[in-house]
């Protein structure tokens, strides 16, 4: 390892005679080396660097163009969406108004229908009560009449004898005969 480091150290001690060698003075050699490297890079790398920059520029321009197109498309879609939203909101408002109107109309129809049904039920109730009253009155009349008839028959049977019975029948037949002559 000592030989390797000695060879680098000994480079700094070479004489400046007319022979070829390395100049170890950093301040004197750096600007020259840099100008040579830059000259070579500019001469040979000018086309490559220009192409790279042109390609990069084209990619950036294409990206900007695509972005503008996408932005335009997005703006169009946004406007369409806003238009659809306004249309849907108007339809929703219309449905809401129509719905409230329909609800009120149905409510009034239901109330009117209920009142009509209640009136009909009241009429049916009154008719049923009247019918039951008439039926009850007729039943009471029939019972009273039947009891009166039974009482009258009982009284007649107990009061009439055969002779009186025959005279009553004869008088009634005579009355019917007279009535028949009058009507003829």
Could you name the key traits of this structure?
mainly alpha, about 90% helix
Q: How does this model look, in words?
A:
The protein has 184 residues and is mostly helical. It has a domain at 32-133. 90% of the residues lie in helices and 0% in strands. It is built from three helices and no strands. The chain has helices at 2-11, 26-159, 162-183. It is rod-shaped, with a radius of gyration of 67 Å. It starts with a helix and ends with a helix. The relative contact order is 0.02. Residues 4-15 have low confidence and may be disordered. It is found in: Membrane; Plastid, Chloroplast thylakoid membrane. Keywords: ATP synthesis, CF(0), Chloroplast, Coiled coil, Hydrogen ion transport, Ion transport, Membrane, Plastid, Thylakoid, Transmembrane, Transmembrane helix, Transport.
Class inferred from helices and paired strands: mainly alpha
Can you count the beta strands? 0
Strand content: under 5%
Assign a percent range to the helix content. over 70%
Give the SSE string. Answer: HHH
**Average pLDDT for all residues:** 82
Most strands sheet? none
Number of contiguous helices: 3
* Head-to-tail CA distance between termini: 177 Å
Shape: rod-shaped
Task: Work out the radius of gyration.
Answer: 67 Å
Low-confidence runs (pLDDT<50, min 5 residues)?
A: 4-15
